[in-house]
Amino acid sequence: MKKPSKIEYISWSILGTIGLALFLIYQPEVVPLSKVKVTIGRAEAAQTAVSYLNTHGFDVTELDSLYRAVRFLPSPTQERPYQILNFSDEDYEFLEKHSPAYYWQVSWYDNSGRQLYQAFVSPDGRAFGFDHYVPEDVPGDSLTREEAQQVMDNFLETKLHLDLDKYELLEVSSDKQKSRMDYSLTYYSKYDFPGEIQLQLRTTLRGNQVHRVVTFFSTPERFRNESVMELQNEGIIRTVVVPVIMVVIFIILGVMYILRFHAGEIAIKAPIIVGMIYTVIMALMSLNTFDLWTTYGFGNASPAIRIASYLVVFALMGVFGAVMILASWSVGDSIVREKWGYKLTLFDRISSGRILFPSLLPSIFIGYMGGLVTVGLWAGLSYMVTENFSAWTESRSVAFLLTSYMPVFEVVGEALTDSLFYSFIGTLFLVAFFKKQLSRVIKNDSLNSFVAVLLMAALVSVSQSLIPLYPVSWRFGITLLSSFILGWIFVKYDLVAVLVAGFILSILPYAHELFLTEYFFTSGILSYVFALVPLGFGLFAYFKGTELTAEEIATKPSYVKLITQRERMAQELDIARNVQMSLLPKQNPIVDGYDIAGVCLPALEVGGDYYDFFHLRDGKIGIAIGDVSGKGVPAAIYMTLTKGILQTCASDSNSPKEVLNKLNKHIYNNIERNSFVSMFYAVLDMKKRTLRFSRAGHNPAIVIHRSKESNTLLEPRGMAVGLEAGEKFNETLEENEIQVERGDVLTFYTDGFTEASTKDGEEFGEDRLFDVVSENKDSTANAIIQKVVRAAKSFVGNHPQHDDMTMVVIKVT
């Protein structure tokens, strides 16, 4: 990474400080859980639940034989009204006593599904409700409606010590079971809440026993409709949009990975190790929050099957994430190295085990400041929209921390996996991918980078969120901005800075929530300590490490050599192509009585095709077409040599055989023995309308006669230039002459046309070439060439060609 300037250090320090201040001030305001006093943990909640059930007449001795799950949950209906409506302190106090917005749910259940006990405990340790499922085939009493109400009223007054004068019975419904009658009775509190809010007490009598007493925070229909609509929108995004995006990215990654893997241009070892680490962390995180998932989903399956099923699901999620990281790292790495290899220098050294060097600290510093800026924007903008635009947030993404067995591990694990996933897939791969694709249409590098980062941020914004903010459009907008900042850090600095920024962006909100929660204060402190680990490591590396040497900076992973080799070959290809094009005639000769045109279409691999025209004495013109053996730069060099020698030789003689003999002697003495030049050289006497020609191992020329039905192949004997010193060359070389007439078409070409092939290996061939020229003999010379080119390209389709296509057409007019 380029060392930041003093101004950059100062600017980032100021921005980071502002971001930290915004975060500390507004984060507690936008996460409702921050205001809740949590004084007990999982173990205490379970103990309170057992005591509560025992107090209300349940046999708690059988609980030891059942599965137990302890979860910290938000009330699904209370968080939004808490933020939107103007509740007084008295309102909050009443609700927290009778219906807490957050609570511990302790559940016991068996494999058969016939046993389910639940107790609800407030964050400060007060039990306020329970539920016990009794199978429909268990016998019991069948009370009348009046008897059921009397039993329930008595229970509420004597056991729960409720003043029923402050409640009113809202609804009574009965449910006939096989051997008993069950009743559900709903009461509502007469407490006057703002905004049509109603606190309900929902109870169930199974037989003559009270088995359910829970509170329910009832909101107006408009609240429910808006909330349901937003949750539906979020559901569509999470279940349709995000999976589609992931699948598309996965397919693109897969194809590019396979192609680059076969080319040997990707890292393998390091991505596999990181992918395995990611999978292990995900698996441990799922075990750490085990209670959050074990009683949900998979129909009526037993808890044991549900547990096993969720383990499989989380394992597959971990593996999928690991594969995405592996592929995105490998592919993104190889793309970035084509233009931005320096952005991976520090990461290369860390991957190779060289971890202590002072130049690591600037990247870590930029990462911290970038993380603080983004987390500050999150908190500040979320607060702004919740205060001014009727937006609201939910705490379910934070509540799962309290459910976990080890909150600190959950915080650190979440930060690590988020940082790895979004840094490699979002920043490394997507930014590099978009930048490369956009380079075809956006030539300005700064604009190209801006658009590439913006596209990446748009994709990431639908799948990543620090805080569940509603309406979701606000969330997407804020995530778009924060993701853009992270992407631009990569464009401006390097991958290490992005990884650190992503880590800080993810760990700080969770660490701060634990820090503000009384019972989990210590876990919050430990989480903050882990948040400082990268900075501590950077400082240690700065003071104790040794700086990277020039050799270490220049050292690249072994697979990068292949990328470098490919880049070198591409540069050679460009050089060779430029040389080839510069040697060709800039314009076609314009002479009375003849229409002359030539073309050379370079292939994927630059060959040595060449054609030229020479104005000779006595009203003659020389026409040369040749093919230098080899590809790339060597072929371009030999072509340059051939052109220069041929120009000199042609000016001294009007005999094609003599010219080729002189050319052969010079070429033989100046090129490698395994190299040669095939050539067809002709001299056109424009006054006498004769063509004298010789062929040195080249394709025959074609004469399409206007006055004859048959065509003529000009194929005198001759061996290629440069294969022999001169004696045999001269003996085998023939020189012939023909008379041409008005309307005749002379066609000279290289084997790039006749050997152009389909994917099945079928060649275009001389017969097709003859037919196309013959069918278009009344056209101009240039039109004939274009017809042949179109016919050849149509024949081969999309199959790539590896030889140049060169042609000269002379039409006698």
Describe the structure.
This protein is of the alpha+beta class. The mean pLDDT is 86. The strands form 4 sheets. It has an 8-stranded antiparallel β-sheet. α1 runs parallel beside α15, α8 crosses α12 (407-438) and α20 (632-652) packs across α21. Helix content is 53%, strand content 17%.
* Global outline: elongated
* Number of helical stretches of at least 4 residues: 25
Gap from first CA to last CA: 67 Å
For the sheet with most strands, the description reads: 8 strands, antiparallel
Determine the fraction of residues in helical runs and give it as a percent range: 40-55%
What is the subunit organization of this protein?
single chain
Any idea what the radius of gyration is?
41 Å
Physical arrangement of strands within the biggest beta sheet:
1-2-3-4-8-7-6-5
Question: What percent of residues are in strands?
Answer: 15-25%
Quickly count the domains. 3
Low-confidence stretches: none
pLDDT averaged over residues: 86
The count of β-strands is: 21
Q: Please state the structural category.
A: alpha+beta
Supply the key terms.
813 residues; Phosphatase 2c, domain 1; 3 domains; 8-stranded antiparallel β-sheet; 6-stranded antiparallel β-sheet; 21 strands; 53% helix; 17% strand
